Amino acid sequence: MMGFSTRERRHLLSRRFTVALCAGSLALQLGCYSYAPVQSSPPVQADRMSITINDKGRELLRERVSPLVDRIDGRFVSMDSTNLVLRVTRVVDLRSGATNWMGEQITIPREAILGYQDKPYSRSRTFAFVGALVLGLIVVITSISLAVSGNGLPDPTPDPGGSGQS
What we know:
The longest helix has 27 residues, at about 125-150. Strand 2 and strand 3 (about 85-95) form a beta hairpin. The mean pLDDT is about 75. This protein has two domains: about 5-30 and about 120-150; about 50-120, SH3 type barrels. The protein contains three helices and five strands. The protein has about 170 residues and is an alpha+beta fold. The chain has a five-stranded antiparallel sheet.
């Protein structure tokens, strides 16, 4: 039986690490927040929110954001009778493409807003996230210890006296 070379073991470890990294990224996408239903008035005391933009808003935000903007996600900064100010974390366009932002602050005219969606903290999603993270770490640590010790993998060196020939 052909065993794994050192290079193959490293490749196997690399693949397992990549899978664990992807699983961790997926868990990060779930995050610790959930979206509330869309509403026509701004949520009371919302820290994180998603703003759905109307057709007029696409025209008004064409230069600053995108002519195809559908939704803007971010942290609430302030609001007055004519504008809402957000620190933008993500912009989703009409073709479902998303662009991550680094918290740049933009002013959105209230006439540009079709609806508001609060993004409250979710305790159950946080527990699920932490559980997935711990499980991912266990898988990675187990994979590393198996690859280093060689347990569970075929031995790369043939057995010198156990071939059964007389």
